[in-house]
Amino acid sequence: MSLRELGRYRRDLGLQKKRRFIALLKKFPAVFEIVEEGVYSLQFKLTPEAERLYFEELKVRNEMEDLLVVKLRKLLMMSLDKRILLEKIAHLRNDLGLPLEFRDTICHRYPQFFKVVATARGLALELTHWDPELAVTAAELSEEENRVREIEEKDLIIDRPLKFNRLKLPKGLNLSKGEMRRICLFRDIPYISPYSDFSGLRSGTIEKEKHACAVVHEMLSLTVEKRTLVDHLTHFREEFRFSQQVRGMLIRHPDMFYVSLKGDRDSVFLREAYRDSQLIDKDRLLIIKEKLRSIISVPRFPRRGAPRSEADGAEGNDEAKGGTLEEGEEWSDADNFMSDDEFDNDEDDDEDDWSDEDDDTPPDFDEDGKTLNIGVSKPVKDEDNSRQNDGKVLVPVLPDGRPRERW
């Protein structure tokens, strides 16, 4: 794609400031390549590694479409009316791994499971088929695995001591005896499945909070990274009958959820899915995301002190010049070197101008075929001269040039 054509998608890309696209593309050398197609025409494309990663993501998304359908069905099965607005599901799109166009693709491809209906508040996704086999939560599956493991251990171990029902808290979490007693009492309450009918549960009761925690636990288990924003959960107050204090409910149960205050908005993590701040089971989309993050983090210029070749020395010396341009480069009159008449046919001329001038490229210091060493002090040169004169006999002389007499 040409840079001129890219300028028309400034608003779609979410770029508010009028910065030059060429500086943005050069900031990620492992993702984009810039090719000159003419005097005033620059094209950009994906690098081979970025293109391979893109096709790998497409393959994974096509293979996991059935899993995404199951996630949407389970989400609808947990709601009160078995119907959720598409606008609210869009808030969880990235967390669930749904594609960008899921409203026009997945929601219409499977009429045997759900359908799109029009409501007074907008389009909503409604469940058309209830599957009892899907009404099994991740917490119930984990509990069943633990029970089978305990039975196997009981058959193998003889005279095993009694196992007390102790509360296992994460490392670094210190609670008072009253808080620990309250968590133990809450855990001893019979489990209420999020797929059961909860219309009869009164708000403010301990049973309703038990059901709300089960719903949040199941929703987090459906996400790719087993976490989401607290604000995203608050959008589903009506569908799941959450209380007004969703964040306070999550904080009251630190054995199940971890609320992070880092960032502009709070995030909630599923504790049992992590071990030492690392996911136990990583989703395939998450692995691709980590690969993409690794090639995005490749810097254009190496850091100071990093080993590099002599050819990279010129780029390193010009790092201060190019770095400021890339980070916050604003528009300048020098960028508008092309006449306005040439862009009369474009709709967004004023805000989508761009510059073909490749002024971010470091200058070539190797014009004569020799490497130019910058910043070498004079003592180093004197030392080199003394090394060259090691084979000569030096005769002492006076200041006026006459040879000094030897005694």
Q: Which of globular, elongated, flat, extended, rod-shaped describes the shape? A: extended
Low-confidence stretches: 308-383
- Strand composition percent: 5-15%
Oligomer: single chain
SSE succession: HHHEEHHEHHHEEHHHEHHHEEEEHHHH
Q: What's the mean pLDDT score?
A: 77
**C-alpha termini separation:** 84 Å
What characterizes the major β-sheet? 3 strands, antiparallel
Number of helices: 18
Helix percentage range? 25-40%
Structural class: alpha+beta
Folded structure, characterized:
It is a single chain. This protein has helices at 3-6, 10-13, 21-26, 48-63, 65-78, 86-89, 93-96, 106-109, 138-156, 177-188, 206-222, 230-234, 237-240, 246-251, 284-296, 313-317, 319-328, 378-388, and strands at 32-36, 42-46, 83-85, 114-119, 122-127, 227-229, 257-260, 267-270, 274-275, 278-279. The termini are far apart. The protein is extended. By secondary structure, the chain is of the alpha+beta class.
Task: Give a brief outline of the structure.
Helices cover 39% and strands 10% of the residues.
Task: Summarize the helices and strands and which ones pair or pack.
Elements: H1 3-6, H2 10-13, H3 21-26, E1 32-36, E2 42-46, H4 48-63, H5 65-78, E3 83-85, H6 86-89, H7 93-96, H8 106-109, E4 114-119, E5 122-127, H9 138-156, H10 177-188, H11 206-222, E6 227-229, H12 230-234, H13 237-240, H14 246-251, E7 257-260, E8 267-270, E9 274-275, E10 278-279, H15 284-296, H16 313-317, H17 319-328, H18 378-388
Antiparallel strand pairs: 1-2, 3-5, 4-5, 6-8, 7-8, 9-10
